[in-house]
């Protein structure tokens, strides 16, 4: 007999799996739209984006190629979107496995490892690029 937790996980897994692509689309659209508005831009690697902006055109702001100037924002948005999709997909897999009563210890090791690696990179880039501005 399934426990209440398994029943809830199974229902949640089915619901999220049904709307998984909608979640990806809405999350990706929000990330991309907010990246185009500097006041609302966010990302896990904003200080690194600012440092790349400085490297790619901060000193020569008027003569920079538009594609090169946009590259730091594109890289930041792409990394943020990929991590978002990865963690949603991993969560769906774990919820489905819990709902079916499977052992999930092996399933959560990789997402937890990726989370901690991302956390270390986030802390490191905040320390390295703390006082860097786009104008160099």
Task: List key phrases describing it.
136 residues; 5 helices
Commentary on this structure:
This protein has 136 residues and is mostly helical. The protein has five helices and no strands. It has helices at residues 4-18, 20-35, 46-58, 66-99, 105-128. The chain is elongated and about 65 Å long.
Short account of what is shown:
This protein has 136 residues and is mainly alpha-helical. The chain has helices spanning 4-18, 20-35, 46-58, 66-99, 105-128. Helix 2 runs antiparallel to helix 4 (66-99) and helix 3 (46-58) runs antiparallel to helix 4 (66-99).
Number of DSSP strand runs? 0
In DSSP terms (H or I, runs of 4 or more residues), the helix count works out at 5
Poorly predicted ranges (pLDDT <50, ≥5 residues)?
A: none
Report the structural category: mainly alpha
Helix content: over 70%
Strand content: under 5%
The radius of gyration computed from the alpha-carbon positions, rounded to a whole number of angstroms, is 19 Å
Distance between the termini: 63 Å
Average pLDDT figure: 79
Order of helices and strands: HHHHH
> What's the story with the biggest beta sheet?
none
Strand and helix layout:
Layout: H1 4-18, H2 20-35, H3 46-58, H4 66-99, H5 105-128
Helix pairs in contact: 1-4, 2-4, 3-4
